[in-house]
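Sorry to interrupt, but I need a hand with the structure work. Go ahead and set the record down below:
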Amino acid sequence: MSALLSVHDLEVSYGTIPALNGIDLEVEQGKIVTLIGANGAGKTTTLRTISGLLKPRRGEVKFRDQNITGVKPHIITARGISHVPEGRGIFANLTVADNLELGAYLRKDKVTQKEYDRIFLLFPVLKERIKQNAGTLSGGEQQMLAISRALMGKPQVLLLDEPSLGLAPQMVQTIFRVIREINAEGTTILLVEQNAHMALVTAHRGYVMETGKIVLADDTKALLASDRVKKAYLGG
């Protein structure tokens, strides 16, 4: 069975500075796959290239066996890949309701009340805040809104970039619990996360990136047991 999402021999540069040096990765349907590595390893660049925000110098991105390399971001979103960027990217001067509505902007079908109910079941606080401007939410609530807005597009694959960044430990637990729930309901997830331990206990498979290359790839149990991973990323 071929992967739902895959990248092959991907090379990306910022000007003359190489960011990705020929990486390969696969995301199987129904799985959570995580990318871990130090700052500057190329994790965010990988997600930005998959979602069409960056064009690679070479290599390809495939989704459902179709080449989507260099396709415009809004077309990739409409096809079923939603990207929650680092820093959340919500519309601070619009209400929570408006942000959620914008998440469904590219859909051809009508959003149902059931979908809103699902969001409010995952994140009850958003129901309480529905008429507030998004900029007045706490950092954790903004992260909840960013994930919810992406879900309104009914994605088959959710790209999550640093969902726990800057959040209190209790909020991190909440976000990761919801990530597992979203996945259990059928959404495939590619997760970039600084908190390597949290990422590896949540995901099914992991890739370790260093300076634009994949240096390790395995199921997450094996990575958690790896001395190299423990030493570099788990403080062991």
About this structure: The first helix runs from residue 43 to 50. The domain at 5-91+154-233 is CATH 3.40.50.300 (Rossmann fold).
